[in-house]
Amino acid sequence: MVESIREIIEASFGYSLSNVSDIVIILMGIVLILLAVVSVFALIVQIILAIKYHKYNKKQNSLNMTGENVARKILDENGLEHIKVKSSGSILFGNSYSHFFKKVRLRRLTWKKSSISSLAMASQKSCLAILDKENDPDMKTRIKLTPIIYFGPMAFIPLIIIGILIDIIVLQSQSFTFTMLLTSLGLVLYIISFIMSIKVLKTEVKAQNKAYEVLKENKMATDEELQMLKKLFKLYNIEYVNDMIVSLLELIYRVLQIIAILQQNSNSNN
């Protein structure tokens, strides 16, 4: 069993891992299986979400208002006239709210269409601004740790490369002490980012619930439309959790790869 897993992983590496311990090989095999299962599930959710979004984006909302107008109305009625509503073609930002730039960003199709999807995205992102105004504790934490949430994972690979360069070029060491040290630092940053991503999801769900209240109280959506919004938001939440799990599994696999390489090189040199 272990040898079969070893052969599969060796094929992905492109060279022998005969000196790598069985436990590392088994863990890599388990992570690969989990990654495959979660990735398939995530793909199914993404397809369903895309179909739902497209369907609701073709359906006119009862207000006959564009995403821009919906966001502007909600913001103005909650004393947030200073918050701008802008279109965004950016994959990085997409539909979002920025505390730092005082801006609700909506994707171009969401921004200019008067659809159910536009109503959903515009109301929910505007409600993030309301949570910010109300000093919601989860929102305050999210804002403070935004740099770590978004850029923490990006530091992982550069830190590993720096560690390897210090060990090989500067110290000419075979122990890879700095590699392991900086890998551990990168792992800590990633874990903090992962934990804070849960906080992000919590604020997103709070904003969704706030959107239901605002739309219902101001008669901006019918009961049928509110049900559509709930279905759409539920799929977004599932997708978000899937992405978090996939990212964590990929990180674990990368760490195991590094351990395997270090074990292989260390045992080869002895």
The overall strand count is: 3
Helix content: over 70%
The total of helices stands at 10
Structural class: mainly alpha
Biggest sheet overview: 3 strands, mixed
Characteristics:
10 helices; 270 residues; three-stranded mixed sheet; mainly alpha
Please explain how this structure is put together:
- The protein has about 270 residues and is mainly alpha-helical.
- It has one domain (about 1-270).
- It is about 75% helix and about 5% strand.
- It has helices at about 1-15, 20-60, 65-75, 110, 115-135, 135-145, 145-150, 155-170, 175-215, 225-270; strands at about 85-90, 95-100, 105.
- Strands 1-3-2 form a three-stranded mixed sheet.
- A hairpin with a 4-residue loop joins strand 2 and strand 3 (about 105).
- Helix 5 (about 115-135) packs across helix 9 (about 175-215), helix 8 (about 155-170) packs antiparallel against helix 9 and helix 9 (about 175-215) packs antiparallel against helix 10.
- The chain is elongated, with a radius of gyration of 23 Å.
- The relative contact order is 0.14.
- The mean pLDDT is about 85.
